[in-house]
Amino acid sequence: MSRYTGSVCKLCRTEGEKLYLKGARCYSDKCAFERKPNTPGQQGQGRRRRKVSEYGLQLREKQKVRRIYGLQENKFHKYFKEAERDNGITGEVFLQLLERRLDNVVYRMSLARSRNEARQLVLHGHFEVNGRRVNIPSYIIQENDQINVKEASLKKDIFQEIIEVNSNLTPPEWVTVDLENGAGSVVSMPTREDIQYPVEEHLIVEFYSR
């Protein structure tokens, strides 16, 4: 499956806002978006962003959220269709499904510095869910699931660096974390209020409902 391999900082500049794709770096003065907020490319230098149509707003919102979670279009749309079949509010169920992906939960527990890093660590088999090794980033987490870094993996330099960098981060209320021991649990399902990103999910619903 194809995946974007270019500069993720350009994605933030394209969308005109921070997507927090590089973890701690996005909160520092090294953030590329803070230094160069204009759109990428020579034509973007010094130009104001054009006023966009209603369709354009819907498309940009869809692209923004897709990039936040690092998904390709077919997988992203699949989650939307699944949310549409649910009895709840489509937009909120959709975001909840995205939040419940294992790679996202690992990131939200501060066991990785970015979602992209979380995806790679899961793919390489460093995590267990309820005592069983899971290497599928799209694995959907359930309430009361226990997630932990494998004992052998926790001793690796990369996890020691993650623990040091993320030691001051506060995880969302729907998870509990013991960062030093690389373990955590999902105490409840994420709610709309738990998603602090500036997301207007109704625009995505309108985009796919055209």
Model description:
- By secondary structure, the protein is of the alpha+beta class.
- Among the domains are: 1-51, Ribosomal protein S4/S9, N-terminal domain (Ribosomal Protein S4 Delta 41, Chain A, domain 1), CATH 1.10.1050.10; 101-186, Structural Genomics Hypothetical 15.5 Kd Protein In mrcA-pckA Intergenic Region, Chain A (Roll).
- 41% of the residues lie in helices and 8% in strands.
- It is built from 10 helices and 5 strands.
- The protein has helices at 8-15, 32-35, 54-69, 73-84, 90-99, 102-108, 115-123, 151-154, 157-165, 201-208, and strands spanning 127-129, 132-133, 146-149, 175-178, 183-186.
- It has a 5-stranded antiparallel beta sheet.
- Helix 5 crosses helix 10 (201-208).
- It is globular.
- The mean pLDDT is 88.
Helix and strand arrangement:
Blueprint: H1 8-15, H2 32-35, H3 54-69, H4 73-84, H5 90-99, H6 102-108, H7 115-123, E1 127-129, E2 132-133, E3 146-149, H8 151-154, H9 157-165, E4 175-178, E5 183-186, H10 201-208
Antiparallel strand pairs: 1-2, 1-3, 3-5, 4-5
Describe the structure using short key phrases.
single chain, 210 residues, alpha+beta, Ribosomal Protein S4 Delta 41, Chain A, domain 1, Structural Genomics Hypothetical 15.5 Kd Protein In mrcA-pckA Intergenic Region, Chain A, five-stranded antiparallel beta sheet, 10 helices, 8% strand, globular
